[in-house]
Amino acid sequence: MIRPALALLLVTVPAWAQAPSAAKSAKDAQDLRGIWQAKGNAYRNLEAERGVIVDPASGKIPYRAEARSLADRNFQARTTADPLLVCFQPGVPRATLLPEPFQIFQHQDRVVIVYQHVHAYRVIFTDGRPHYDDGIEFYMGDSRGRWEGNTLVVDATNFKPENWLDAAGHFHSNKLHVVERYTRTAPEVMRYEATMEDPEVFQRPWTIRVQLALHSEPNFQLIEHECDRDAQGVYRHPPQFLK
Amino acid sequence: MKIGVLLLLAGCGLPLAAHHSFAAEFDDKQPVKLDGTVVKFDFMNPHSWISMDVKNSDGTTVRWSVETGSTNALFRRGWRKESLRPGDHITIDAFRAKDGSNTANASSVKLPDGRQISAASSRDGTK
Amino acid sequence: MRPALLLIAAVCVSAQSAFTPPRLPDGHPDFGGIWMAATLSAAFNVEEHAASYGTPAGPSVIVDPPGGKLPYLPGMRERAVDNDQHRERDPVGQCHMHGVPRVMFPPFPLEIVQDGNYVVILTETEHGVRIIPTDGRPFLKNYSSWNGDSRGRWDGDTLVVDVRGLNGKGWLDQAGNFVGAGARVVERFRLTAKDILEYEATVENPSVFSRPFTVRVPLRRRPADVELLEYGCIEGERDAGHLPPVNAPLNGGQR
């Protein structure tokens, strides 16, 4: 049962949305549009960066025993085996965490996220249509979203198994299921949470949380980030995109 | 796969080449008929790949890599990642790679249940 | 299926439509949805061509100059012919985005999303993206890219897009036609019927062509249940090892 004061909060338009040209409905609090970028360095190592894993409280990924040893082997090989090094699309939630901007568009029944990193994109339908069956897999998964108050909740499935979750070799299988929560807490701040579930790799679900900051520089835009083959015929990022 | 869906999609006649030109890699003057057993089916882009063991008339077995259309083209024709499983017996009409390797570009695939479907080859263009 | 496509294409070419488009709250026409080229053969060759080895026959999609031929400068058509003999050099085969205008008419769907001051074109091929601001901001300086830097504005119910910053390495079609470095493109998008988005692109490059030329490829709306599917390319690319080595640099006919 919702207490009256809480009910009032749920239908109140947040102060940040009351900009001069904003309309007056609670719907405008559901405006996530803009160019965003994650703060901090979660992209390097979800476990080593403090405060990123908020559940479990240990801050450690609850791997199954055999999966933990595979994560350790990935870590040892991370300077050569990381799929991102050879220009794979980054997957979810890794794409959100990268030190590179992404842009959110919203229109009618869909939210579109375009990541500058290798111009990966996701179309997130919010009209209730179901996921694909499990006969097809995507690097960026299949995403369906809904609103819970001012939070966009995105359910992502149908992942290819070959991707990593960060640069330290944390990984998943094609049974990965991610639930993301995007909440704009101030005009230039968004709280991003992602809960990962994968019965083949993890003993239980676990959750990360990072802050996203809006790019408010005048005329800021995504630029093209395309890969090309090197002299050995291997796809590589262009020099300005190497860490 | 639902047979009704397959037949409908096969009749759509959408051209399928976006990745590379068939002509650069394969030779439509070298048709091959590959009768064999699936080792692996990689349902992927830009092309899916069927790895199969083909028995020669002398009893030896040769491993072939056969390219089909993109996941997207195949998916819209009713294919799924489980459409071919290791051990499935299939027959493929294909065109051999110009470099002489045991690589081919499929034009049609006969499935374990006997149905014949287009492999969404990049050769087909507009049907 | 094909007769219906030809009929629709014929209607597009001949009509100066008085069609009133559906509008968004800001008053602009609503181009949103999934579209695909109605003239699928344009992806193979923008000029009129007979069927050949792996290529379907098709009409010219060049509406200017009359005659439907690319107005190459002397020596340039030879480079296109050389590309045609070396299709392993096609940058699309290396998973590069197709460039403008080629990206608008592959035989795969694309999606248009309008959101305030942005028109976004998502292409299934190469999971490509074009983000077109319509807020009048300046172009990027010293920018060289596969899909260009685009700025849009509304001219009545026509979206006019100015494209600069193309790197000149992309081809114009699978037959090796090209636009070259320094090309500038002006596109026009206009709904001429509920399910037809007329697309025109005027290309100018005085170092390759004797005069600007214009292609027109109507885009036909896909059925409502079609969604874009992810098209990973680099992740699964396995053909390179079977192609002849690419000795020439990947450029639009300029070595």
List the helices and strands and how they pair.
The complex is a heterotrimer of chains A (243), B (127) and C (255).
Chain A: H1 4-11, E1 34-38, E2 53-55, H2 65-76, H3 78-81, H4 94-97, E3 102-107, E4 110-115, E5 121-125, E6 142-148, E7 151-157, E8 177-186, E9 189-197, E10 206-214, E11 228-229, E12 235-236
Antiparallel strand pairs in A: 1-3, 1-10, 2-10, 3-4, 4-5, 6-7, 7-8, 8-9, 9-10, 11-12
Chain B: H1 3-10, H2 22-25, E1 26-42, E2 49-55, E3 61-67, H3 71-75, E4 89-97, E5 103-110, E6 116-118
Parallel strand pairs in B: 3-5
Antiparallel strand pairs in B: 1-2, 1-4, 2-3, 4-5, 5-6
Chain C: H1 2-14, E1 33-37, E2 62-64, H2 76-85, E3 110-115, E4 118-123, E5 128-133, E6 149-155, E7 158-164, E8 184-193, E9 196-204, E10 213-216, E11 219-221
Antiparallel strand pairs in C: 1-3, 1-11, 2-10, 3-4, 4-5, 6-7, 7-8, 8-9, 9-10, 9-11
Task: Offer a few descriptive terms.
heterotrimer, A: 243 residues, mainly beta, Lipocalin, 10-stranded antiparallel beta sheet, two-stranded antiparallel sheet, 4 helices, 12 strands, 12% helix, B: 127 residues, OB fold (Dihydrolipoamide Acetyltransferase, E2P), 5-stranded mixed barrel, 3 helices, globular
